[in-house]
């Protein structure tokens, strides 16, 4: 392109330069003739202008211009279609890169192959510069107007760009997509109530609308990637009533959930009771089986235990007989020992009796001799009786000693009688023990 421009500029500049020289020479001649008073100079014929060189340069400059016009660069993310001035739109797609076209006959129409967004009723978040798209107004089965916020993400089919260029209005983003999207939603929503569109069948409505939009735009070479139902704006009065209805439905749902929970709890209790019953049956069966096994084990053990028990019984009998013989022998030994002990005791008692008899005889002999000596002593000294009485009396009784010849002393007569009668003296000696208490009483 630069080479062609330079050659064309040179081809145009050469004639202009020669023309400027001719104009300058002519102006000088006119100025010279007007100022001189002498004869006029004879004018020479001007040289003809050179047209061959500029023409050749112009032809040479057209060649790089034609080459430049035949080179087309398709940017990344774009696609192109050849448009011929003779045959119209040519089939095939020019993808990003360098392509050759027929200069002056063909041109390339560029299309953006990246994703496009069609939005309705969406506020672009951007602060003060945000833009509000007009909402998509539709009607429900009840005839109420609903404002929908819809977003459609789509892109052009690269294989059908020739069809888009030849048959669809341009630009497609503004001329085709908005009416198709609006028509699909407006055809679909009258079959649903406001409540279904808003809550219960919202996803179903969106899916059907997406299928309709995809089918209609796909027939024209537009691939729909996603249809989003961003928001639903209900009429104010209906929104208030629907809010109360939704609250009641929520309460009903909560009651249903609570009822289901209670039913599940009852079912769980029943299952637990059944499980416990089965467990008890299993435990009973296990216990019965264990008892059977234990009985079998005991029966098997009895086969080995009975001989052992018999041996133990025989051993017990032998031990009893041995204990019996030992007891008899012990009894005989004890009897013999008791006989020996009784004989020894008898001999001991006999010896003790003999010793006691000897002691009594000796004591009697000693007492007799003592009494004889005392009687002889009393006969010699009668006053000893008073001394003996005084010694035997209690210390609590006052004793008064008087002479033997006192008139009022009660023992004077006794002493005199004792001295006169020896038999009475012996009787008094036997009664000394009784006389002492009587004297105390007196």
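^ structure tokens above, recovered residues below v
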């Amino acid at each position: 392109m630069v080479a062609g421009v330079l050659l064309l500029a040179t081809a145009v500049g050469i004639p202009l330069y020669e023309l400027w020289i001719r104009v300058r020479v002519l102006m000088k001649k006119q100025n010279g003739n007007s100022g001189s008073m002498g004869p006029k100079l004879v004018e020479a014929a001007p040289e003809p202008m050179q047209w061959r060189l500029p023409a050749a340069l112009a032809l040479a400059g057209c060649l790089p211009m034609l080459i430049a016009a035949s080179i087309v660069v398709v940017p990344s993310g774009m696609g192109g279609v050849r448009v011929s001035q003779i045959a119209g739109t040519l089939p095939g797609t020019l993808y990003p890169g360098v392509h050759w076209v027929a200069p002056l006959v063909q041109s390339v129409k560029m299309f953006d192959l990246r994703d496009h967004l069609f939005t309705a009723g969406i506020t672009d978040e951007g602060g003060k510069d945000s833009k509000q798209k007009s909402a998509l107004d539709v009607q429900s089965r009840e005839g109420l107007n609903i404002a929908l916020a819809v977003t459609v993400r789509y892109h052009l089919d690269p294989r059908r760009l020739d069809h888009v260029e030849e048959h669809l209005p341009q630009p497609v983003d503004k001329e085709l997509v908005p009416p198709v999207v609006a028509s699909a939603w407006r055809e679909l929503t009258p079959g649903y109530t406001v409540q279904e569109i808003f809550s219960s069948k919202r996803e179903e409505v969106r899916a059907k609308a997406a299928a309709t939009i995809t089918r209609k735009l796909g027939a024209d070479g537009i691939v729909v990637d996603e249809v989003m139902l961003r928001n639903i704006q209900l009429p104010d009065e209906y929104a208030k009533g629907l809010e109360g209805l939704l609250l009641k439905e929520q309460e009903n749902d909560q009651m249903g959930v609570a009822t289901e929970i209670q039913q599940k709890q009852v079912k769980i209790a029943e299952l637990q009771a059944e499980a416990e019953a089965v467990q008890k049956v299993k435990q009973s069966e296990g216990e019965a089986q264990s008892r059977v096994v234990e009985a079998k084990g005991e029966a098997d053990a009895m086969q080995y235990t009975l001989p052992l028990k018999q041996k133990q019984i025989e051993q017990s009998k032998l031990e009893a007989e041995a204990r019996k013989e030992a007891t008899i022998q012990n009894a005989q030994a004890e009897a013999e020992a008791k006989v020996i002990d009784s004989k020894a005791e008898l001999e001991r008692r006999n010896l003790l009796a003999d010793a006691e008899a000897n002691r009594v005889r000796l004591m009697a002999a000693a007492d007799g001799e003592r009494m004889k000596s005392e009687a002889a002593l009393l006969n010699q000294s009668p006053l000893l009786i008073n001394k003996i009485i005084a010694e035997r009396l209690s210390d609590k009784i006052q004793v008064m000693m008087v002479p033997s010849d006192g008139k009022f002393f009660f023992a004077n007569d006794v002493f005199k009688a004792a001295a006169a009668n020896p038999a009475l003296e012996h009787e008094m000696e036997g009664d000394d023990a009784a006389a002492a208490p009587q004297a105390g009483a007196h």
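The beta strands are 71-74, 78-84, 88-89, 97-100, 106-112, 116-120, 136-139, 145-156, 222-233.
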